[in-house]
Structure prediction request, 230 residues.
Amino acid sequence: MPQLKGRQEPSPTGEARTPGGSDWTAVVIAQLDGPHPDLSPASRDAEQTWALLDKLTSSPAPALYAAAVSTTPSTVASLHGWNELLSAPPDDLAPEARTHLPQLAELEAAWPAHGTRIVHGDLRADNMVRDHHRGVTFVDWAHATTGPACIDAASLAPQLVLAGHAPADIARLIRDHPATADTTTAFLAALTGHWHRNARKPAPPGAPGLRAYQQRAAAAGLALLGYRLS
Prediction:
């Protein structure tokens, strides 16, 4: 979960107190016993993950959570890439992306959207644990923020395609999912544009497989967008 920052001082009663509600740190740790979930079509972990996502987005974020993440810059809000590719389309850009470049850039520009739901911001199988007792649990909340409920649903959708689900099935799933709304397409466009742009950069130190992953994720996101673009 996100770290809550501040400075604690003893109160007259001997208990810790936080002057002015700032400058303090709290870290919540839980022990989980189990592997990362299997999001492939043969597993029920994907179904359990969607159910957990439903629970996470079913009501507005608690006030304390919203306050904790309010001063942390959202990486979700900075996702982009199509506008740069529109100005100088690379020769290897997928034909379906080239055809829809103006529309994708326009959708991307409509993001970010504000919202009141809890947002994990980086849902992938390696940021989840299927605990033997608790079931699927979302971990690694480094990008925690608030926003519309569609963010994590739209982020998870390409991961399911990468895990072997048919893009048509996942496109139908996000179309019918209660967490998704008109902003889903705009966010999915921004996320996919981010992957397409960054996949063309040199590999950063210590992450040799990142660009190859971004290429695969970009293709999965574009496959889903194909069902949502006119």
The longest strand covers residues 23-26. Residues 160 and 166 are 8 Å apart (CA to CA). The two ends are 39 Å apart (CA to CA). Residues 1-19 have pLDDT under 50 and may be disordered.
